Amino acid sequence: MIIAMTYDNALENLKLQLTGKLLVAGDPDFEKACQIWNARLIKNPAAILQCADADDAATGVKFATKHGLPVVVRGGGHSYAGLSSGDEVLLIDFSRMKGIEIDAANRRALVEPGVHWGEFNEAALARGLAPTTGTVNSVGVAGFTLGGGSGWLTRKHGLAIDNLLSVRVVTANGELLTASESENADLFWGLRGGAGNFAIATGFEFNLHPMENEVFAGQIIYPISEARRALQVYREVMSQAPDGFCCYPAAFRIPPIEAFPQDQHGKVVLNFIHLHIGDADEGKRVVQPLRDFEHPVMDLSAKQPYSEHLKVLDAGTPPGQRWYSRGQYMNSITDEAIDAFIDHAQSIQGALTFAYFEPLGGAAGRIAPDATAFPHRDAPVSFHILAGWMDSEEDESVMQWTRDFHPA
Q1: Which of 17, 146, 269, 326 holds its CA 20 to 30 A away from the CA of 184?
Q2: CA torsion angle 334 340 346 348 (round to 10)
Q3: Distance between CA atoms of residues 35 and 135, nearest Å
Q4: What is the pTM of this model?
């Protein structure tokens, strides 16, 4: 009891040192603050420090070290693996730190670690600029970037880390530093692809790119029975595609909503979700083979606002569901890989599940493998399964399907 009282007193003292807020079990907002995007992996932290600034994070690290508490960091809270929380830890939560500063003249942005890509995209596009964003607006900038960060503009402008100019961090001893090519360069090397293992990032400086809001983009959906030929055509298209072209072939089960033809509801399909940055007519020419080789179920390819295309995957990745993910880098999409993909996709498990290939290469592939802590520069493609479902009773069936699919 004496130890417990001492610890409680220490928590009260910690609160007095913070600009932000400290929550513990029993506080009115504690349960809500425990929620993360992946409902399957919600944990029970010992305390949640909702930082107002980097000093709060530094104070929290020093407190955790003194009292033997493990530290977990939450940026956007979108971690597939549940790394945004933990049991009996001090959770350093940046969800309130959402500052975005756009320097349009120098094409630079300063972004705090609680910002999501949707917020960052909106702020930059309002100035005619774009960051190297992810593919889902609710994903946090921080965790995405520290792991490498691939998305719609990877082939055109590189990974998120290739556009990272500096990072403000808190080290394991609570020291505040800036890491860049010219300052703490070894740390900067590790932060770019090291997935947050070297320091706690409290601010990011990014390079931005000019962006016209009109692009040629859309979706081309085929029955899964056409997937073998479709993926072979895709392989050929991507072998010759310009850097400005990005296309994700994704298998999923069509949900029963009005956006899709009623006779396709519940059926497994292959969807070419594509985007071309640059001349729209060139984009139309590049994607045309994916539209023409057979009769698609739907073809939504057209000139459209880039800002609208950025929302294309949002409805399929809602918060508060159960998620399980696996992925790997690949040297190529072989016929054998295509056959394995189709074999498992036909029995897809989970109402929100989709399995897809991600095109890499381009600008990201022209960076030396040892230039950053992200080594996969020579991989032209990666493969991902994002299994999503709602009912905990489906946990074993969906996760086992994913475990079988991934190594195949």
Answers
A1: 17
A2: -110
A3: 22
A4: 0.95
